[in-house]
Amino acid sequence: MKLLEYWFPASRGWNVAQEPRLANGTRPDFLVSIRTNEAGQPTTGWVDAEGTRTVVVVETKRPSNHWTDAGRANIMNEVEEYMEHEIDQHELNVIWGITMIGYHWKGVKRAEPGEGLENCTEWADDIMSPESWAQMRAFKNQITGEVMPA
Q1: What is the pLDDT confidence band of residue 150, given thresholds at 50, 70 and 90?
Q2: Closest-CA residue to 77 (of 59, 56, 103)
Q3: 43-54 pLDDT, tens per residue?
């Protein structure tokens, strides 16, 4: 959670929720949302639950059980299901996902309901390595650029 709060800080209008319950009763590990004002623009000011929108769905797994071809396929299916629910439920144009298996991670994007996931990154081996850190920064900047255009 601390890593997500680093990349998506509350001081910039982001909210990281751990194990939120979705309307369909399922629970992803984390949802990252952004607070918006009446015009739908990101804000750091207080807004109620109606003034937020989901931006990133995060699902994590332990490497001992899931760092296999089947485990990677399983986590991708799970995050895709959560993303599909959120894009339908909130009529979103785009939503991103982060899947993590131990220190391995991958970023994905879905632009339309019913469409497949677009790989934004390949599986990175170590979230803490300098290369992976730069990859995460680029992925986060892609998200920020679409959510908060200049």
Answers
A1: very low
A2: 59
A3: 555 444 455 667
